[in-house]
Amino acid sequence: MSSKSHLKDAKNPRFGHLLLSTSGPEECALTGSALLRSSYHNKGSAFPSNERKDFKLYGLLPPNVQTLEDQVKRAYQQYSSRTDALAKNTFMTSMKEQNEVLYYKLIQDHLKEMFSIIYTPTEGEAIQNFSRLFRKPEGCFLNIYDQDRVEDNLAQWGEPEDIDYIVVTDGEEILGIGDQGVGGILISVAKLVLTTLCAGIHPPRTLPVVLDCGTDNEHLLNDELYLGVRKPRVRGKEYDDFVDKFVQSVQKLYPRAYLHFEDFGLSNARRILDNYRPNIACFNDDIQGTGCITLAAIMSGLHVSNLKLSEMKLVVFGSGTAGIGIADQVRDAIAAESGKSKDDAAKQIWCVDKPGLLLKSLGEDLTIGQGPFARDDKDWQGKDHNELLSVIKEVKPHVLIGTSTKPKSFTKEVVEEMSKHVERPIILPLSNPTRLHEADPKDINEWSKGKALIATGSPFPPVEYNGKHYEVAECNNSTAFPGIGLGTVLSRSKLLSDKMLVAAVKAIAAQSPALKDPSKGLVPDVIDVREISVHVAKAVIKQSVEEGLATEEGIPENDEDLEEWIREQMWEPRYRPLVHVDQEKASKHGRGELGTGGVAKQAK
Question: Region Disordered: what ranges (predicted)?
């Protein structure tokens, strides 16, 4: 991402009329200290002289007018003085509450360094300490014991046209650290930060939500400072009714909003997605986002190894939400590419979990997602299917994926066995955090004698074999879900279809550095994510139009115009000129009433 200031004050003559246009000045009805308290409109020391006069800011700010770049320099020095990762995370949270443009610009200019601070793993620590670090609420807190208020609580955040993107969690399975109850709101907040950073989703048009259903985390239940419902987690019909009440309220209040489910428990995530996906534009990052970026890495690897998707054999080690989500995406892509049925495509995938290879005889012990990938017992009669190595020996897969959180499970024997049968084995240890990875890329590279094509779930340095360097790509969902969301939002698609997801995967894979140099990463680096998101959004929009799902009018037909149309609507961290308007004539945005940094309107 460029650190250069981008001033674009004149209206775009072609697309400046759009609701989400980012060119031209912004209206603002706030003045004085009220303006300085609006995190979205506040410019702090960067308010120019004319705006200090028009908005009655003289005497409220030091006299020297600074640039955004000056502010970033000072903020980075302050950030760097914090002694540990959690302190840095807390500092950034405080900055976001004061000045959103400066917050996003600081991260944008130091994305590689700060990504682990604003997201995993540090955000996980912040979530675990939510009730102890709590200073100011952010987002919408919905309570399962107060279901009659759900619609009114959601209605505080705007009118039907005001919200584009909603992230909701029930806090049950957060970032590999389990049930965090009401603290899960911070994963909704963090995901929306990434949609803004990576795809230009407008911050005041987003809404983070937590469905507080209680918690089974004994530590939280016994913590006198815990802010959520201090009761065991509610399940069954009451839980389903709560989720449905939320979804129905979203549809009623914000019919054009895109709904992103995040970190729901294993028993609910798939079921909820399958239930609502046929009716609304919705997405689950743990299932579909992980699947998309992993499939993009696989497609790039297959290109390097000159193998067709329809010929590939895949073993997934760890068949929970993420593993089955990947299997689903791969199966759907095989079906779309080859014309095979989904059942036939699933026969190219072998899923292994704690009991070993998933077999149909496991019956009710299989989850809804695992069922389609369970193999016939008769095919494995007399064969060892309890260990990963035994399955590898029998299947001879081209691709091995790890989502098991079982460290060092990709042993030397496993990697050597794969390398015996495949010229360029694709090995993806994806478990997070780093300590839970199935294997270190350095070892995989050594054991495969430099043959393996590797991507991981966390950042790793390049590896070397016989004097040759190989880059290790990170399968970071942030190169997938923001662009998918942007495309769905801009097209106002009625649904997010399988074909739209496959189009997104192809767009990501097309940006793979490995296509030009096999020693480079299988998927593009997160540092290039805004440009990647443009291409992903373009592919998603075109597919939505082709399927008749897009409802937005005036979507350009040719690629060049479509890219300009997309870029014009991507929010970026820069100070736009402010024009003072009267309260009575101002929009809710101009009055500072939109977004979590504004003042929500009163409930009915």
Answer: 582-604
Angle (deg, nearest 10), helices 68-81 and 85-98: 150
Indicate if the alpha-carbon torsion angle 138, 144, 149, 155 is positive or negative. Answer: positive
Q: Which of 256, 26, 251 has its CA nearest to residue 162?
A: 256
Task: Tell me if residue 530 falls in helix, strand or coil.
Answer: helix
What residues contact residue 130 under an 8 Å CB cut-off, 6+ apart? Answer: 180, 182, 183, 185, 186, 227
d(CA 372, CA 263): 23
**Pairwise CA distance, residues 528 & 532, whole Å:** 6
With respect to residue 445, please indicate whether it lies within any of the assigned structural domains. Answer: yes
pLDDT tens digits along 362-411: 999 999 899 999 999 999 999 999 999 999 999 999 999 999 989 999 99
Which residues are known catalytic residues? Answer: 119, 191
Tens digit of each residue's pLDDT (9 = 90 or more) over 453-503: 999 998 899 999 988 899 999 998 999 999 999 999 999 999 999 999 999
For residue 50, the domain's CATH number is: 1.20.1370.30
Please check whether residues 435 and 309 belong to one and the same domain: yes
The token pair that represents 15 in the structure block: 């697309």
CA-to-CA separations, 471 to 425, 518, 531, in angstroms, rounded: 16, 9, 21
Q: What is the DSSP letter of 13?
A: T
* Cα–Cα distance measured from residue 43 to residue 603, given in angstroms and rounded to the nearest whole number: 29
**pTM for this prediction:** 0.92
What's 431's DSSP letter? Answer: -
Q: Are residues 110 and 135 located together in one domain of the fold?
A: no
**Domain for residue 498, yes or no?**
no
Between vectors from CA 80 to CA 1 and to CA 528, what angle results, nearest 5°?
15
Q: Residue 317: in which H helix or E strand, if any?
A: strand 314-317
Among 246, 280, 314, the domain-final residue is 280
Number of helices and strands (H, E) in the chain? 23, 16
Cβ-based neighbour number of residue 368 at 10 Å: 12
Residue 167 pLDDT grade (very low, low, confident, very high; cuts 50, 70, 90): very high
Write down which residue in 419, 442, 475 finishes a domain. 475
CB-based contacts of 19, cutoff 8 Å, min separation 6: 161
Q: What is the DSSP letter of 511?
A: T
Closest among 502, 528, 501 to 513, alpha carbons compared: 528
**266/317 same-domain check:** no
pLDDT tens sequence across 405-461: 899 999 999 999 999 999 999 999 999 877 889 999 999 999 999 999 999 998 899
Counting Cα atoms < 13 Å in the Cβ hemisphere of 35 gives: 28
CA pair distance 179, 497, nearest whole angstrom = 30
Range of the domain at 295: 288-475
Give every CB contact of residue 557 below 8 A, 6+ residues apart in sequence.
none
Q: How many domains does the chain have?
A: 3
Q: Where are the alpha helices (DSSP H) in 254-404?
A: 266-276, 290-304, 321-338, 342-346, 388-395
